[in-house]
Specification:
232 residues; alpha+beta; three-stranded antiparallel beta sheet; two-stranded antiparallel ribbon; 18% strand; globular
Length: 232
């Protein structure tokens, strides 16, 4: 047996359709109950319990008890990063769902990817940061420039010096499944999305498992002013 990480084990956990649907629902960054995840997967609560036990044992999700309820969330942004990458691979290879809902265009335009902005607007934002020379990017490595740090402080009141994390980079390129290009992840990507919410520029869809992010009219204008493009 070859040494090293057991990719097959992780792949088997993600590869089951019901578990894949559960994991995708948790990419909202919100913790969901077993009943909510069962509904997202289209399975019975009893079957969901078995799947959740396997995902927990495999280190992909973790439980959190609050009162009588038990919630589940992804164990970290690295899990979301892998799922987004797999979604991009499935899209490129033509493995798409037969049925698409009315939220599909909205999902492609702006969605949450664990805790940062993805979709067309997420890619547009990173493109703009590069064009304005606020970040430097080499493949998946992204670094804020001095001007970028000033921009974040002045435009969004984000102290980038406070974003250092022992297990997560400040800036990271995440391959967007719908655009097949990179959007901004890392602690900075999370901080920017948080500021959009705090400023009432954007809000996540309230439905359980929905990843859609809706921008307000003011948010559309401010986003366009900072990162280019035309308000919708």
């Amino acid at each position: 047996m070859k040494a090293g990480p057991d990719i097959a084990m992780v792949a088997s956990l993600v590869g089951d359709p019901a578990r894949a649907n559960m994991l995708t629902a948790l990419m909202t960054g919100r913790a969901l109950t077993a009943s909510e995840l069962a509904q997202q997967a289209g399975i019975t609560p009893q079957t969901a319990s078995s799947h959740l036990s396997k995902l927990e044992a495999g280190g992909l999700i973790e439980p959190e008890k609050q009162g009588r309820h038990r919630y589940y969330r992804l164990t970290g942004s690295d899990v979301a990063h892998v799922l987004e990458g797999l979604a991009g691979l499935a899209e490129r290879a033509g493995h798409t769902r037969v049925r698409t809902g009315p939220k599909e265009p909205a999902l492609r335009r702006a969605r949450i990817c664990y805790d940062h902005l993805a979709g067309d607007l997420g890619v547009q934002m990173l493109d703009s940061l590069r064009t304005q020379r606020l970040v430097r990017q080499t493949k998946q490595s992204i670094e804020l420039t001095g001007e970028g740090k000033r921009f974040m402080a002045e435009a969004l009141q984000i102290d980038t010096e406070a974003l250092a994390h022992p297990r997560r980079p400040v800036c990271k390129a995440c391959l967007d499944w719908s655009e097949r290009r990179h959007h901004l992840a890392g602690t900075l990507g999370a901080a920017v999305m948080s500021r959009f919410t705090e400023l009432n520029w954007a809000a996540r869809d309230s439905a359980a498992g929905s990843r859609v992010v809706n921008f307000t009219r003011t948010g559309e204008k401010r986003f366009a002013a900072l990162f280019g493009g035309q308000p919708a």
